[in-house]
Every structure is written in C-alpha cells, then in structure tokens.
Amino acid sequence: MTSESGRPLSVRLAGAGVDRRSFLKFCAGITATLALPAQLAPRVAYALDQADPLPVIWLEFQDCAGDTEAFLRSRNPTVGDLILGMISLDYHETVMSAAGEAAEKARDDTVARGGHLVVVEGSIPLGIPGSCTVGGQSAENILRDAVRGAAGIINVGTCAAFGGIPAAGPNPTGAVRVEDVVGGVPVVNLTGCPVNADNLTATIVHYLTFGEFPELDGFSRPRFAYGERIHDTCQRRGHFDAGQFAEKWGDEGHRNGWCLYRLGCKGPSTFHNCPSVRFNGGTSWPVAAGHGCVGCSEPGFWDNMSPFYDRLPHVATSGFDLTADQIGIGVLAATATGFASHGVGKVVQHKVAARREKKAAAELAERADSEEETENGSASAGAGGEETGETR
Ligand code: SF4
Fold it and tell me: Domain 230-344: what homologous superfamily?
C-alpha cells in the first residue's frame, strides 16, 4: 500500500522541504519514545513511508482547546509536517477551513467510508446537553455518529479520558468521559492537561506501523507513556532521597532545585513520561521549571489532586509520601534506604536508556547520510552529471 498519489510519505515530505535524513531521525526518535528496540526504527520508517494517510476526525466538546494547541505546537515544524503527512485531518472545528454544511459533509463522508480514527478533546455534558452543541447537535449525538465504523478512539487530555476539570465537583453540566457514552471501539486514553503531542504522534505511528494501538494499562493509557511514575524518573529525585526539600517558594532549597514534595508535588502518585519527553520541543516540564507535579494525568484530577500546594495524605503512593517525612540527612531508615536504592536504580536505568536511544538515532542518521552519498555517486556515474530529478 502506498500513500496518496502513489507517492511514499518521505517523497511527499521532500517536496515540503523535509529531507530523508530528518525523516529517519524522526522515526528513530519516535521508536525510542515508544520504548521499542532501536532495531525496529527501519521498520517504522518503512511502514510510515508506505501507509496511506490515516483519516482522522477531531472532535472538541467541553474543553479549553489546550490539546489542540499542544498538537499544533508539536516538537518542531518538521514534525508538524510529518504528522500532517501521516494523517488526513478531515474534520477539526478549530483548524479546518471549511465551515457550516461543507464541514459537516466532510465529517459525514469520512464516517461513511469507515476505518477512521476519532480523536476526542473534552468531556460530554450529559446533564445539560445544550451546554455544548455544534450545528444544533449535542456533543453526545455528534460523538455517537462519529464513532460508527471507526477503527478506534483516541481521547486526548484528561477531560475526554476521565471527565477532567468539567467533571470536578459539583460538576454542573453532568460531564462524563467518552467511555461513558460510547463503547465497542478500541480506546486509547492520552491523559494530561494538556496531552503531550509527542505521545499522540507516537500512538499514531504505532497504529500505522503495527495496525494496532500500543499496549495499554488499566486506564487504557499506553504503557510506553504512562508505565513509570514521575517520581521515579524525576531529575529532583536525588534530593528526595537525600532528604533535601524546598519548604517555601523561593527559599534556598527551591532556588537550588531541591525536591518539591513538601510544596505539594504529586509526582509520587502520578504516572507519565513528562520527565523524559518533556514539553515545548523537549525544552522543559513543570517540575524542571520549579513547580510541583499536579497529577493532571490521573483519574479524579482535579478533585483528587487538589489543593495543589499541600501534601495529600489520602493519595496512595506506595509508601513514598510516608517515607518522605521520615527521611532526613543522617536518619535514613532501612526501608527508606530500600526505596532510595530503587529510585537511584530507576534514574540510572533511565539515563542508560536515553543514551541507547541517542545512539540509535545517530546510527539511523548516519545510515541516511550513507544512502545519500551512495545515491549521489550513482546519480553522477549513471547520468553523466545530469540531474536525475529524483527526490528522496
Ligand atoms: Fe520530583 Fe516531586 Fe518526586 Fe520530588 S516529590 S522527586 S519533585 S516527582
């Protein structure tokens, strides 16, 4: 199977100024994000090259459009081109140029063909259906229609996945998550407030490469993105283990980058790959910027994770929050030492994995250079210096 116009993705991207080296580098990076062996990167590249653009309907209900913002601000313009090359974004109220009946027709046509993905942003107001309507249709009706014949649903952000902020008490609109409205279709929950666009890209790449969604946890979240506790890969973890905590905003500990646990950080009870993937092109993430994790990717956010700036004794943390108060310099109990060793081990593992991923990306980039050199040599020899016109 080849893409539209019979042209592989890499060729179409070349026409948009994205060279093959960048394409292969992207494939190596996304393979690493998916926690797949580096040897699978060429398979990912081949699958993406050959796949037809995946038809996508993106629905927005009770949301702030933060996930759309994250999607539009993917890692860099190159990756933005790659995403839009991999999918056919047939309907998205915020970014599509069509309006009114033409927009509705585009959505209905895609549903009629089937095999599409439905991306949902925002919760569904079952209590007051009229609080969120598009074209006179309630969110519930639009959602039910859109998933007919769909290959799957990707819920982006915590509102679509768990109800999120609209469902926080007293939940005036009777907001519910997508899975409370529709069923019978594979569902992936990419939680977070907002979703991390790299995880969305990786999920789509996995689907295009293997024909199925990645392995999921008990909350339908991909394990590659939600398999590890933030606390275990946090850059401040060494300070937690050493009993070094910021006690007040702006104090010496805060200025020195110490652990934010006593300022309310929910990292010990939150599962997400924020510390490794980060946001804004891998620039930073909240804890690196000096603010504790607020647990936005967990069920029950916001109610279960607020107030943000207090430690929450009711949040289950497998003992980490209990030991935090007990840990002090020179007062490490045997149990705490066990947890600390585990934490150090996880950080070391994380660094080793990061180095391995970097190496794989470098190797794939070298392969691209080598291909280019071979290609250029063959072109010169075979065409006697004439331009071949082939684009890679
Ligand atoms: Fe990092 Fe928060 Fe854990 Fe401290 S409590 S190590 S800041 S995740």
Answer: Cytochrome-c3 hydrogenase, C-terminal domain (4.10.480.10)
